[in-house]
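Design a sequence for this backbone.
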C-alpha cells in the first residue's frame, strides 16, 4: 500500500514537472474579487502563452489589461522555481511596484498551492519590496 502511494506521488510529481499548465490548473489557487479563492483555470490563449514560455527562452508580451497574463507569469515562475534547477527569473516592470506585485503573486500562488510549491517560494527574494 505504501509503495503504491509513493508511486502515485512520484507520477504526479513528474507530471507536474513536465507540464506547467497542468501544475497551475491542478495545484494553484487564485483570488477572485467576488468568489474568493478559486482554482486557476486557464483559458485557451493562456495555454498558448505557457507553450510559448516553454518553447522560447525570452518572451515579450504586448497585452491589454485584465487578461490574467501577470498571474499566469507568476504561476509559471512558481513552476520554474519548484521544478527547474539552475534557473534565474527576472521580472522587469516600468515601476518598482509592478515588480513587487509580481513577486508577491508568485509567493501567494505557492503558499496556496501544493506542498511541491510551498517550499520553493521561500527562495523568493523580497528585500526590495
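Sequence:
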Amino acid at each position: 500500500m505504501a509503495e503504491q502511494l509513493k508511486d502515485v506521488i512520484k507520477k504526479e510529481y513528474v507530471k507536474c514537472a513536465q507540464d506547467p499548465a497542468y501544475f497551475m490548473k491542478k495545484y494553484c489557487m487564485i483570488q477572485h474579487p467576488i468568489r474568493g479563492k478559486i482554482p486557476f483555470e486557464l483559458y485557451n490563449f493562456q495555454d498558448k502563452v505557457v507553450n510559448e514560455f516553454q518553447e522560447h527562452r525570452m518572451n515579450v508580451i504586448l497585452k491589454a489589461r485584465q487578461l490574467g497574463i501577470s498571474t499566469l507569469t507568476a504561476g509559471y515562475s512558481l513552476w520554474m522555481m519548484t521544478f527547474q534547477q539552475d534557473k534565474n527569473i527576472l521580472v522587469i516592470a516600468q515601476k518598482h511596484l509592478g515588480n513587487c506585485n509580481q513577486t508577491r503573486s508568485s509567493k501567494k500562488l505557492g503558499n496556496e498551492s501544493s506542498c511541491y510549491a510551498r517550499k520553493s517560494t521561500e527562495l523568493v527574494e523580497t528585500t526590495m519590496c
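The beta strands are 29-32, 36-39.
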